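QA checklist item 7 of 12: single-chain prediction sanity check.
[x] sequence parsed
[x] length recorded as 210
[x] structure emitted
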Amino acid sequence: MERKVIIISGVVGFLGLLSAVTGFAAEATRVKGSQVQFSSPSECVYPRSPALGLGLTAAMALMVAQIIVNVASGCVCCRKGPHQSGSNWTLALICFVVSWFTFVIAFLLLLTGAALNDQHGEESLYFGNYYCYVVKPGVFAGAAVLSLASVALGIIYYISLTSTKNSNDPWHPPAPSQGGIAMGHPQFPSQTSQDPVFVHEDTYMRRIST
């Protein structure tokens, strides 16, 4: 696995954990119905709660994680090609769709829960009775679980596309293997030594005179 893939997956995973932890913390510190007081029959007094800041932090961390993983992965439809593996592309597409679906739900739940924890003196009249808005139990916790699911699916989607691209990239063929080079010594024709030929003196003088 490339170093870039490990870094991006680590950053996105950290943001997903941050979103989940702050989401569960917001669930634990949300305003309960028993904590709301009535200064008058038509006015609700809400106590201060860190659930607003925790919910917004969880929503922002989840949004940044989703942006990073989608920018790093690129368009899933543009990655489909003849050199792509069909099984990996199908897995990436499924994770992409489900990741966005869980992201939208978790993001809306976090924002809604944070907004409902920031009310001051607001009330509603139903059938002659006044009611005060509070966040229902499980809203922040459900958003935290969906945040983890969204980030996990996003990482799977990113790794699936990246691994398929690297293994089937036509622009980066594997380097050819280099075999051993045979070394040899130059061959020279052997020179055979010849014995000297003795010529008679008269024959030698005759060849010179001619």
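[x] summary fact logged: The longest strand covers residues 37-40.
[ ] second reviewer sign-off
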